Amino acid sequence: MGLAVGAALSGRRPIVEVMFADFVTLAMDQLVNHAAKIRYMTDGQLSVPMTIRVQGGVGGGFGAQHSQSLEAWFLHVPGLKVVAPSSVKDAAGLLVAAIRDDDPVVYLEHRGLYWNKGLRAPDEIPTSIGTAAVVRSGSDVTVVAVSRMVEVAVSAAEKLAEDDIDVEVLDLRSVAPIDWATIDESVRRTRRLVVAHEAVVTGGLGAELVAGVHATAFEALVSPALRVGAPSAPVPASPFLERLYVPDIDDVVSAVLKTMQER
C-alpha cells in the first residue's frame, strides 16, 4: 500500500489488490493516514490517484477472518471514495471510473458475485462514482441495498409483488460519496425505507443511511426506517451456521412487511 501511495504521488495510477477485506487492517496506516489525507494536507498540490481492490463478503465457509464486510470503516474516512458494484456492468464501469479518478478509491468486491454473467460496460463509458441506480421501480417501499444484497432485495421485491406490494430497489453502488438526492426522491414517493447490507447492523452503513434520511425527509416517512444486516457476531465457518448468519430474502421481506403495517 505504501509503495502504491508513492507511485501515485509520482504520477502513476497504481492498483492495489487486497485478497480479503479482513487483511486491509495491515495497511490501514498507509491508506487512512497517507493516501486519504495527502490532498488535504498539501492544499490540493498533490493527489493520490490509486485504486484499492478489496474482496469481502460471506460465502464458501471461509470463516471469521476472511468474510467480513467492512465498508463502514472506509465510509468513516474523509478523503476516500468507496464503491461496491453488484452487476457485471457496474463492476467494469466502476473499476474504470476508480482508475481514472484523481483520489484514492476503495473498490469493494463481493466474492459471491464473481461467477455472475452479464454485459460489461465499455471502457469509454465508466459508471459515475457517487450515483445510485434504480434497479426496480416501485411505489410502496424503498429498499436501498449494496453489493450482493441488491440481488437479494430484487428477489424479495418480486416475492412481495405476489401480494401486491410494490417495492422500489436502489443499488447504492457508491458508498462514499452517497447519492442522497436519488435516495431522498425515492423515499419521498414511497414514504417507507428499508436498508439492506450484509455487514453487521451495529454501526453499519445502514445506520448512516437511515440517519441521513431522517435528517432530510423525516416528515415524509409514515413508518420507521428499518435496517437489514448480519447479527453482531463473527462470521461462522460452518456452512449451516453461515446460511443462518447472512441476511436473506426472507429477512428483507419481513422488514418490508413491518414497514407496511401502517399502510
UniProtKB/TrEMBL annotation:
Keywords: Oxidoreductase, Thiamine pyrophosphate. InterPro entries: THDP-binding, Transketo_C/PFOR_II, Transketolase-like_Pyr-bd, Transketolase_C. Pfam families: Transket_pyr (PF02779), Transketolase_C (PF02780). One of its GO terms (molecular function) is oxidoreductase activity. Its cofactor is thiamine diphosphate. Gene3D superfamilies: 3.40.50.920, 3.40.50.970. Residues 1-116 form the Transketolase-like pyrimidine-binding domain. PANTHER family: PYRUVATE DEHYDROGENASE E1 COMPONENT BETA SUBUNIT, PYRUVATE DEHYDROGENASE E1 COMPONENT SUBUNIT BETA. This is Transketolase-like pyrimidine-binding domain-containing protein. The lineage of its organism: unclassified sequences, metagenomes, ecological metagenomes.
